[in-house]
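Data availability (excerpt). All sequences and predicted token strings are deposited with the supplementary files. A representative entry, Dipeptidase, is shown inline so that the format can be inspected without opening the archive.
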Amino acid sequence: MRLRGLSLLVSLALLAPLSAHAIEFSAAELAKAKALQQRLLTLDSHLDTPANFHREGFDLRQRHDHNALSQVDLPRMQEGALDGGFFAIYTDQGDRSPAAHLHDRDAGLQRLLEIREMLAAHPDQFALALTATDAAKIKAAGKRVVYISMENASPLVADPSLLSFYHQAGLRLLSTVHFANNEFADSATDPKGAEWKGLSPAGKALVDEAVKLGIVIDQSHASDAVFDDLIQRLPVPFVLSHSSAKAIYNHPRNLDDTRLKQLAKAGGVIQVNAYGGYLIDTGKSDARKQAEDALMKQIGAGYDQLTIAQGVQLKEGLAKLDQTQPLRQATLDDFFAHLEHILSVVGPEHVGIGLDWDGGGGLSDLQDVSQLPKITAWLLRKGYSEQQIAGIWGGNLLRVMQQAQDYAEGRRTTNGRALPR
Ligand SMILES: [Zn+2]
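Structure token line:
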């Protein structure tokens, strides 16, 4: 997720034409891939879709591909055979003043409420998943799977004890930090550099408490030193919910091969991302940034406040900008370069998919979740077995969740007391 500025919108706009060599799949390959996904569980570990729930005019059951704000809705989930995934409570990092921490506390609770309200409003289409085995049961009942995750733990700074409340309300995956350092951890991308040299004392206490509750820890967006702390500290495997390979594009958000191997050795999983700016150098000019700022001013609302109608305006405005000031757009070929490399380093048991939908993810030839069978078709072409593909589309991630939950359960049994559920 990247809500600062307009950079996320670029990949959501109408995109530049494909190069002559872009990968293509036949209708037969895509049909076979979709049928396979329909048999398997198909989950994405990082959906920023809850950012849309409060928007005027947004209904997750309706198709929203006419605006620049949405890549995930029920019709397109059905089309792309996406069963669901982890719906993120994302909070933009504030200035870390006491007032900002209270604001973040409330913003996190508000988003949690919006996810629960969506579930309550559409019980025939969506269901909350709490355990690793819930997803398959929900799919069998003909519904979409909603796990709850948190991206950036800043809502917990004011009162870390809220974590147990979030857990009771369904939180099962937790990242410590986002674009900038916070009280818990160093970010991979804070221009000021390291502040804690990894996890802070409060961050260590937070991840320990999360592990006790059976919540999976998510390393995406945190610095490499945080990764090293997690490898040292955690008694259970952890994941990166949306990250890619440093060996393919040297960006601080991506993971190097040594750490990829450490992650796999610890039993963890990396869910490969499709955020263009982490896959390639998009070469965005200052002039383009200014033009995007001017466009937002003209529309007259901040990104978070945009209505669906304004999202349509935005899509059209960005398409115009693409004609005069085009950006280099990441393609499926770029995404597959990362995926193939990671698969070669850690093997298919430690890889998954987390494409950053509704948070800046998407490629010129993979614009929304309706096109997911292209990824499965590629995996089939590369010779991966049905079982391996099932792992990549969610089985590996759920294995980590099962281990986290088993560990927490074991502790409860050992302690002879039950934590509230
Ligand atoms: Zn993110």
